[in-house]
Amino acid sequence: MIYVAVRRSDPITRKVFGNSSRLLIVARHCVGYDRVDVEATAEHGVWVTVTPVKELFLAVAKHIIALIMCSASLE
């Protein structure tokens, strides 16, 4: 089994799937499938997952602001 974690800038093309017959899953950590050849994944039976980090950044930013406000009120 081979799993691949992909950065935003790395394209996963048909050539990648042709050279790795044991590839099972491609995990992307961004929004969208624009850098993955989706037709090639379907032909080779490879799963593609996406973790949309945009929403996570907003949640973290809100949490940090809340912590700053709480610590300011303690003084």
What key attributes describe this structure?
rod-shaped, 3 strands, 75 residues, 3-stranded parallel beta sheet, 47% helix, alpha/beta, 20% strand, Rossmann fold
Provide the residue-averaged pLDDT: 78
Radius of gyration, CA atoms, in whole angstroms: 19 Å
Individual helix count = 3
Shape call? rod-shaped
Structural class: alpha/beta
Concise account of the structure shown:
With 75 residues, this protein is α/β, with parallel strands linked by helices. The protein has helices at residues 14-19, 38-44, 53-74; strands spanning 2-6, 23-28, 47-50.
List the helices and strands and how they pair.
Blueprint: E1 2-6, H1 14-19, E2 23-28, H2 38-44, E3 47-50, H3 53-74
Parallel strand pairs: 1-2, 2-3
Note down, in words, how this protein is organized.
- By secondary structure, this protein is of the alpha/beta class.
- The protein has a single domain, classed as Rossmann fold, CATH 3.40.50.720.
- The chain is built from 3 helices and 3 strands, in the order E-H-E-H-E-H.
- It has a 3-stranded parallel β-sheet with strand order 1-2-3, covered by helices on one side.
- The longest helix has 22 residues.
- It is rod-shaped.
- The N and C termini lie far apart (55 Å).
